[in-house]
Fold:
Amino acid sequence: MSKTLYERIGGEPAVNAAVDIFYRKVLSDHRINRFFDNVDMEKQAAKQKAFLTMAFGGPHSYTGEDMRTGHAHLIKMGLDDSHFDAVVEDLGATLVELNVPQELINEVAAICETTRNDVLGR
Amino acid sequence: MFYSISNQHYGVSFNGSIMYKLTIEEKTYSCQPGETVLDALLRENVNISYACKKGTCHSCMVRSPEAPPPEAAQAGLKNTLKKRNHFLACLCHPEQDMVIKLPDQSEFYTEGTVVVNDMLNRNTLLLIIAFKDAFEFNAGQFVNLQRSDGLTRSYSIANTPQETNTVEFHIRRLPGGRFSEWLHDEIKVGDTIAVSEPRGHCFYLPERSEQGILLVGTGTGLAPLAGILTDALEQGHSGPIFLFHGSREVEDLYRIDEMRQLAGQHQNFHYIPCLSGKHVPEGFTRGRVNEVALATFADLKGWRVFLCGHPDMVNQMKKMTFLKGASMKDIYADAFLVTPA
Structure:
């Protein structure tokens, strides 16, 4: 009964199923896609996969410091709470599309929330 | 598995506030904060071959015989090379002082002989190099060609491995491009040239033969696409195959008749030559090749996509074909960029 979120959500296959859908939503989202204009698609896809793994409660090696360093250039481009919210919203919509139960989506959103201040450099 | 992915992007690569010593044979050099090993060695005028500076061409592969190099500097290398502490100088931010062994280049290169040296159009050379022994590769991969003075450039292979012991290249003359001018102006049939092992992951695999294949290229981006196309047809690919080849003027396209002939022979193959300039003769489509290709398909879900040529076109098309539904793992692109001069 004490399965982790990562196990309950489906582990690596779930990440693989979500990554294309999620990244497509992000790139199509006019609120945030300017932040991805000059990124290498493959590298970014690998980062999205690492991010989803973390958000699903899976194994990851992010530290708060990594989050700060990795997003510092985006803060200079104007990254703020509204953009953070948009990403979380796109992730939620992805999971709805994959028929993930709402209570698991809430847990994913809660994990994302723990990174907000680091991502936004506060 | 996830650890390796995340380490690669979020691990130790952000360090770089310390200066480290690099030792090559008897000499010692300093690697400044933020510099890669390649940056440092070039600044110190060490003669090291390199080309893309972004980890794809493997020209700057060196060895750390005494200690494992940073993991991030081994991204994309074969396991056998990783085990022997090979790494890419252009990706390496040292984490400690390093002893470095430059490659004994004969280890990685094979001598070939030029057997064909003809013009495909007004600025593109057809170069065919033959080897004594079998040269194994996948159609669509690339190699590095190296001149005797060490100058090195990456070129895509244009033929399929079924044509025994030869590799074919399409070499566009770049104004001021030292290597392409050397190939155009000086290389003759009978000359020898050093060819690296084949590299790159942009090639056809004979699976899901009913899948649609979209090939989009500009200029000599046709080279790997022609190899991939021939390979797919030879292996009996049954799904639709669309090739969009573009340039500004008709004089910069090539192999037009051969492609039309191939389209006549294979019902599932469609060839669309595109011209973005003013003059568009009959039989050609007006417009930029990427725009024409995208306008042709409402949806690319389930398609396999190969993109080669101008880096801006390739980058834009990676995104657009992905947004049109192609899966990221089904989008292949030329791994290297043109190095001017």
The interface with chain A takes residues 1-3, 5-11, 14, 315, 318-319, 322-323, 327-328, 331 of chain B (CB under 8 Å). The longest strand of chain B covers residues 109-119. The first helix of chain B runs from residue 2 to 10. The helical segments of chain B are 2-10, 37-43, 79-83, 178-185, 222-234, 256-265, 289-296, 311-323.
